[in-house]
Amino acid sequence: IILINISCNAGKECDIFPQKYQEIYRRCKGDSSLLIDEIDKYIKLNNNCIIAYLKKGDILFSLGKNEQAALQYREVTEIDPSNVSAFYKYAILQHYMQRYDSAIIFYKKALNLKTIDGAIVDYPPNRITQNKKYLYDIDHKLIVMGLGESYYFNRNLYEASKQFEYNLKKNFKIGECYFYLGIIHLDLGEIQK
After folding, report:
1. How far lies 135's CA from each of 27, 37, 48, 130, in Å?
2. Which of 1, 17, 66, 163 has the fewest Cβ atoms within 10 Å of its own Cβ atom?
3. Computed from CA positions of residues 46, 12, 91, 180, in that sequence, does the dihedral angle turn out positive or negative?
4. What is the pLDDT of residue 135?
C-alpha cells in the first residue's frame, strides 16, 4: 500500500517532493536501494518533509524491511503528531508483523485524529484550495476495517464484529466485512446469522 499524506508545513521543498520523487524515480530506474539513498539525501536537506519519510517507509515496507519502515512512520508522528496517514501505515505494519495489540492502538490513534467534536471527519480531495489537510486523507472506514482485522487476529471476536458491522452500516460493503462476520459467527456457533 502506498499512500501519501501531505499535511506537513515544512515549506515549499516539502510541497514539491511528489514532483521531485518522480524525477528521483526516473533517475534511479526504480532501483529501491538507489531510491532510498536519494530520499535520504533529500531528507538531509529537508528534515521535516514528512512526505519523504512516508515514501521511504513505504519502500522499506515493500522490501520487507519492516523495522526500518516502522522508524520512518514513527519519525513522521514525531514531526506531525496529527498525521493520520503515518499512524494508519504504522498500524498496518504492526498488523503485518503480527503485533495485533500494537496495531489496534495505532488504528485507534488514527481514528481519534479524525474525530472532531465527537464526529468522524473524512476530508475529500480538494486540489483547488491546496489545503494540505484535505489533499490526502485516509477514509475512516479503511481504518475501521484494519482495526476489525487486528481485533479478529487477536481473537477479540466481539470487537472485531463491531468494526465490520459498523462498516456495513456505513455502506462500506466490501466482501471482507461479510467474510469476517461469517467466520466470526461460525466461530461463535451462531450459524443462523
Report:
1. 27, 27, 18, 7
2. 1
3. negative
4. 47
